[in-house]
Amino acid sequence: MTPATSSLLVRAARREEVERTPVWFMRQAGRSLPEYRALREGVPMLESCRTPELVTEITLQPVRRHGVDAAIFFSDIVVPLMAVGLDLDIVAGVGPVVAEPVRARADLDRLPELTAEQVPDIAESVRRVVAELGQTPLIGFAGAPFTLASYLVEGGPSKNHERTKALMHGDPELWHALCERLAQISLTFLRVQADHGASAVQLFDSWAGHLSRADYERYVAPHSRHVLAGMAQSHPDVPRIHFGVGTGELLVPMAEAGADVIGVDYRVSLADAVSRTGGRYAVQGNLDPALLFAPWPALERRVREIVEEGRRAPGHIFNLGHGVLPTTDPEVLTRVVELVHDASAR
Ligand code: CP3
């Protein structure tokens, strides 16, 4: 057993006793850090994701600076789609843009299955990061089938996901075929990261909160379950975190899709998340990222409240309700880490 597997994060995810609450931040590696902006100067996002030296350095930056209890692998949910040959780009300030959207049966031919051999650089980056991290665990991640499908069908970021929902309801057979393929790709991407030393994984279904519970259960949950169950089978010791934004109404089906930890955004209290999921799952969250811009006393009060609420959960990993905003003052993040450590010490 490597030391990272008995880390605070892994133990909290397993609902074991911890001496203090582990904390990390979604998008902790990124534009809020001047050292990140310096490294990324002139390097396109997707190129940086496939360069092990850069991935290693960028993944480690927030661990060194903030003293967070976990690193998140620096990559993107569209990296495995690029690896199978899809023509796409990440446009700064916009997000992933797909050259030819996937909307018909024939388009699926452009989306073959992913094999580990197509991402040797990911394996190499994970190995390097894990070697440098020592006792600090690495969280691997992938996009969930629905969120990936939304980018592919819409061709880019979308407010209303109208083409995605039209496909889901108008051609369920094609929809399920697309999601089965995406589930295979996500599962392989997670397995590569776990095979090379990631101690936990997070499945990002960032946009699932746009769905009704009935649609989530019918059109999405079976595919996310395939990913999470596949990880449970191949890597039973690697805890699974399942996260989405605005998913208060979906916490139960998202937990039951095979998570150990359910991500909670700031719209739902941790106490409500625990009671809705019957106290059977650890929770991760849920500071509003915008509160990092509030005066310190107001921020401190809210952080302390979240720590207290988290004590009543079967396991708690402190995080934001969504990613760090690019204009966040990184010194505030460091201060929040210190406060969580201090306030949660048993
Ligand atoms: O620190 C971390 O969280 C690790 C790295 C990470 C990135 N993307 C790096 C990134 C992770 C976990 C992701 C996942 C991701 N990518 C998600 C799910 C998480 C979420 O935010 O809900 C989604 C929806 C994407 C798609 C995507 N990629 C978006 C919406 C954007 C932002 C576009 C922009 O410029 O505002 C990206 C680009 C991206 N991915 C950046 C980073 C650091 C910014 C690019 C840059 O710094 O130039």
Automatic annotation (TrEMBL):
GO terms for molecular function: uroporphyrinogen decarboxylase activity. One of its GO terms (biological process) is protoporphyrinogen IX biosynthetic process. Its EC number is 4.1.1.37. Keywords: Cytoplasm, Decarboxylase, Lyase, Porphyrin biosynthesis. Belongs to the uroporphyrinogen decarboxylase family. It holds the Pfam family URO-D. It comes from the Bacteria. Its main location: cytoplasm. Catalyzes the decarboxylation of four acetate groups of uroporphyrinogen-III to yield coproporphyrinogen-III. Pathway: Porphyrin-containing compound metabolism; protoporphyrin-IX biosynthesis; coproporphyrinogen-III from 5-aminolevulinate: step 4/4. This is Uroporphyrinogen decarboxylase. The record marks D76 as: Transition state stabilizer. It is an enzyme of class 4 (lyase). Substrate binds at R27, Q28, A29, G30, R31, D76, Y151, S206, H322. The lineage of its organism: Bacteria, Bacillati, Actinomycetota, Actinomycetes, Micrococcales. Residues 22-31, 139-155 form the Uroporphyrinogen decarboxylase (URO-D) domain. It is found in: Cytoplasm. Homodimer. The keyword DNA-binding does not apply. The gene is hemE. InterPro entries: UROD/MetE-like_sf, Uroporphyrinogen_deCO2ase_HemE, Uroporphyrinogen_deCOase. Coiled coil: none annotated. GO terms for cellular component: cytosol. Gene3D superfamilies: 3.20.20.210. It catalyses: uroporphyrinogen III + 4 H(+) = coproporphyrinogen III + 4 CO2.
